[in-house]
Write a sequence for this structure.
């Protein structure tokens, strides 16, 4: 094995497969991550609401869900959803992409709910006291005072979650659903090359997450700027 | 001076933590009359802040009652038999906090107009007019469109006072309003409070400013260990203290 050959092979592979494999793979990876974060954020908000509700059983359900999801490996959750869901819901039979998406959403929702909960709880209790002492209801306090401040804590953490998910979708390649990692395995299968497709896809992942990180940093700075004005 | 109209009647107020292990408030009863400037003094941990915060139920007492303008606000049901809406009573009790608690994402003007508009349904134009009038009274009219972070501590506290006043409360509760301020800013806040007292506002003030208690208060309460140990005119409390705990406290702070 020598580096020159590997380098040449990577260039050859990239030229040959960039549209069919890499672009398709990126499409799957990014769309899967976007769906996961978007739906996960909605579901996560609901779980966070349950977690902060005054009705104990709601709290317990949310806490148990979050703990189980966070306390078991994601790959295992993917397997469970992939094999169990079609048996429970016949509609999902042979819909691998959907099963994997649902698994990722359920996983992400648990983490997002913690992000939202901690974002809300990080707002100084004095803010609530001031609002309530002025006669605002608890709902008005939440929408007018707490959430606008919590969002500044929540958005950057959600962005990080998105980047994590972009990388975590690679686990979905276990079921060949077409993401970047799946493409890597496919190229490996057709070319009998191991190292080259791996490095190629690693570069793509890195560039994706690097761009996302920079974008996020930009938005985060703009959010912070709003504080000083 | 004070008339004998009762504004708030506090009866046997108790606040326990951990069962009965910690008695933050141990059977406190006191009447607050219209026009009173009641100053509460005492060592830290004496329960004076807990007492003040109980008056508008920011702390929910373990037992006892608080009758505000004829309604016992510690009850779940109001006099009309419906669920008691504490928000309606809180509007009438302005509160000023040690750490100001201005809303950092809103301008000074928005801080002041939010509650009048959302809670009392005042129009924006009217709320802003009133807010600017109040800001003018504390010399901060030109800062109306600034954000809280741009103000000094003393300015923030003056805004916090007029924010509470914008709701036209019947009583103002002050929870150590000058304790978080740099020394040179204490005076400007006390001045505002003094003027407020002179205008006849009913005030309950928890403070360590003995000068203010003596000069502005018409009643002084001394609390220690959750108990109300002595009550009297500023002259009686400061010049003729009876309780040994009070004598000890005064010897340390004066």
């Amino acid at each position: 094995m020598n580096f020159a050959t590997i380098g040449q092979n990577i260039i050859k592979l990239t030229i040959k497969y960039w549209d069919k494999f890499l672009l398709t793979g990126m499409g799957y990876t990014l769309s899967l991550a976007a769906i996961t974060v978007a739906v996960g954020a909605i579901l996560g908000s609901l779980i966070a609401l349950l977690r902060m509700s005054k009705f104990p059983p709601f709290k317990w359900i949310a806490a148990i869900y979050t703990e189980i999801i966070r306390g078991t490996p994601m790959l295992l959750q993917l397997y469970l959803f992939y094999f169990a869901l079609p048996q429970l819901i016949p509609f999902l039979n042979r819909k691998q992409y959907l099963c994997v998406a649902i698994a990722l959403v359920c996983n992400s929702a648990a983490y997002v709910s913690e992000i939202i909960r901690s974002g809300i709880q990080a707002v100084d209790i004095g803010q609530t006291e001031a609002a309530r002492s002025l006669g605002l209801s608890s709902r008005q306090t939440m929408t007018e005072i707490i959430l606008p401040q919590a969002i500044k804590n929540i958005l950057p953490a959600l962005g990080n979650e998105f980047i994590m998910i972009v990388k975590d979708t690679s686990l979905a390649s276990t079921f060949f659903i077409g993401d970047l990692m799946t493409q890597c395995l496919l190229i490996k299968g057709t070319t009998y090359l191991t190292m080259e497709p791996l490095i190629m896809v690693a570069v793509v992942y890195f560039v994706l997450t690097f761009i996302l990180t920079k974008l996020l940093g930009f938005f985060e700075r703009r959010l912070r700027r709003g504080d000083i004005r | 001076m004070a008339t004998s109209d009762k504004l708030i009647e506090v009866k046997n107020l108790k606040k326990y933590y951990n069962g009965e292990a910690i008695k933050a408030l141990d059977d406190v009863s006191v009447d607050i009359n219209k026009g009173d400037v009641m100053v509460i003094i005492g060592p830290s941990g004496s329960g004076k802040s807990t007492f003040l915060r109980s008056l508008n139920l920011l702390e929910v007492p373990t037992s006892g009652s608080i009758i505000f303008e004829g309604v016992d606000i510690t009850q779940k049901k109001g006099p009309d038999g419906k669920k008691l809406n504490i928000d309606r009573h809180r509007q009438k009790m302005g509160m000023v906090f040690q750490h100001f608690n201005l809303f950092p994402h809103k301008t000074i003007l928005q801080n002041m107009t939010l509650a009048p508009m959302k809670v009392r349904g005042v129009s924006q134009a009217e709320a802003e007019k009133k807010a600017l009038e109040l800001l003018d009274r504390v010399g901060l009219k030109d800062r109306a469109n600034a954000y809280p972070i741009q103000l000094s501590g003393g300015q923030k506290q003056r805004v916090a006072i007029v924010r509470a006043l914008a709701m036209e409360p019947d009583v103002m509760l002050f929870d150590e309003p000058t304790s978080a301020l740099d020394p040179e800013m204490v005076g400007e806040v006390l001045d505002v409070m003094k003027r407020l007292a002179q205008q006849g506002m009913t005030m309950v003030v928890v403070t360590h400013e003995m000068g203010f208690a003596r000069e502005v208060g018409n009643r002084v309460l001394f609390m220690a260990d959750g108990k109300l140990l002595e009550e009297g005119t500023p002259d009686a409390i400061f010049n003729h203290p009876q309780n040994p705990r009070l004598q000890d406290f005064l010897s340390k702070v004066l």
About this structure: The mean pLDDT of chain A is 90. DSSP finds eight helices and no strands in chain A. The interface with chain B takes residues 124, 126-127, 129-137, 140, 144-145, 148-149, 226-229 of chain A (CB under 8 Å). The radius of gyration of chain A is 22 Å.
